[in-house]
Write a structure and sequence with these properties.
By secondary structure, the chain is of the alpha+beta class. 48% of the residues lie in helices and 17% in strands.
Amino acid sequence: MQHPAHTGRSIDTDHAAEVGGFRFWFVGQRWEWSDEVARMHGYEPGSVEPTTELLLSHKHPDDRAHVQELLDQALHGGRSFSSRHRFVDTAGAVHDAIVVGDRITDDIGAVVGTAGYYIDLTGTLHQRRDATRQEVLDEELPDLLDARAVIEQAKGVLMAIYRINGEQAFEVLRWRSQETNTKLRVLANQLVSEVRTLPPSSGDVQRAFDHLLLTIHERVGREPES
């Protein structure tokens, strides 16, 4: 994945507060937030210096240990910081977010950090859905009609991986389409084509899914568990 650290672009984006960029440098645990990520957390851009402590203080109490574990894995294992979790802004509002990250490497290929995007699935993302509905229809309906099947497949992949709903999955696809200036159906087709190259799921996940598939009929019509 190309990201701001590799392309030389600013980590600011053009998607208001629902998408913003970040970088995390392992040496010194130094963070960089785009203006959008600062605003997501309730800060005016440039008014606060992001730190690991500040980042963790904003995580939802039920998700904080999970995020801490991911950060430890990034620092000690050279992994990217990618997650689905909740954070709390300075006003106390809870945000549901996907963090999509990739590794930053130096000239000799050593992993020196992680960079990517916050995708806020709450707040302005939902507020702008009605406002952009006509824009989506006007600009993308021909592609949607021509390639509905592959777009639905791509949405299904995102829904399964990130555990989001169909509208949120479409917004993620649409964001990447705009960010990369790639037609939505082309992007969706490439995603579906390349997802099979991912490592297979663990045995535990496979067995759990097998059990779900073979017993799902027993729960049809039941109220979902809270």
